[in-house]
Design a protein that fits this description.
- With 257 residues, the protein is an alpha/beta fold.
- The protein has one domain: 3-Layer(aba) Sandwich (Rossmann fold).
- Helix content is 53%, strand content 13%.
């Protein structure tokens, strides 16, 4: 049963134990096709939340009890990024395939093409551009709402439009908290996807890194070059902090074993 709002159910958990528990909660799919088939079997009859776990999510969650709870209450957690892969391997956990939102969400939309999609997040003109891009691909976009509304406004619009898929693109931890609020306040099945910057990518506000950078796992560096003011703290400070957290957690978990 979902709490109202996300109660900090893990607030007493030690950061090291939480990090380990979160990594173990990621479902390690061997391919995107396996993940899509898994979704088909489990997400048809209720509100179902997909969240992505990357280095930034772990850094935020270790000091934000409400965000921790919202992540752990998601119905499916997917690994996003090389940093989380290395963290999983440090604990002997299968990391599965990297199913980051920018690549996986378009696959989900293609898989459910014809169903009603509602977009919540970013700002204009990129929100409308994202909707137009999806419509040009044959998707049924039944509504949009920017990422700066009170939670009740999203719930009201979703109740009115009754979408099958809801994409939230407003960043962590706001989108994960909103996802739980939506799931608690609708009475029909819907796939709720915490998409981060996906609407900015679809609306061409932000471009993808060249393929060679993605293959070398350097997309974070490309994004940093595009948005240095907004992302410098997340990457230049966040990556060393993340590595430190993993090293400390690994030592403490092993010492307690």
């Amino acid at each position: 049963m979902r709490t109202d709002p996300c109660e900090p159910v893990t607030s007493c958990a030690r950061p090291s134990q939480f990090l380990y528990d979160l990594l173990r909660s990621i479902t390690p799919f061997s391919s995107s096709l396996q993940a899509l088939r898994w979704l088909d079997e489990r997400s048809q009859d209720r509100a179902f939340i997909i969240s992505f776990v990357n280095q930034h999510a772990i850094n935020l969650a270790t000091h934000d009890a409400r965000f921790r709870a919202c992540l752990m209450e998601s119905d499916l957690l997917l690994r996003d990024g090389a940093g989380v892969e290395l963290a999983c391997r440090a604990f002997g956990i299968d990391p599965g395939q990297n199913l980051n939102g920018t690549d996986f969400i378009p696959l989900v939309l293609e898989h459910v093409k014809g169903q009603k999609v509602l977009l919540c997040g970013t700002t204009e003109p990129w929100l409308s551009a994202a909707a137009q891009a999806l419509e040009s691909q044959g998707h049924r976009v039944v509504g949009t709402l920017n990422g700066f509304q009170p939670f009740q406004a999203y719930v009201q619009k979703i109740r009115a439009r009754r979408p099958d898929v809801i994409i939230l693109g407003m960043g962590m931890p706001r989108q994960e908290t909103l996802a739980q609020s939506i799931a608690r306040n609708i009475s029909f099945p819907a796939l709720i996807i915490n998409g981060g910057a996906i609407l900015d990518f679809l609306g061409q506000r932000v471009t993808r890194a060249p393929l060679w950078m993605r293959r070398l796992r350097l997309e974070w560096l490309y994004r940093l070059s595009l948005e240095p003011v907004r992302l410098s703290r997340r990457y230049l400070i966040g990556i060393p902090v993340f590595i430190y957290k993993v090293v400390v957690a690994r030592y403490k978990i092993r010492s307690a074993a």
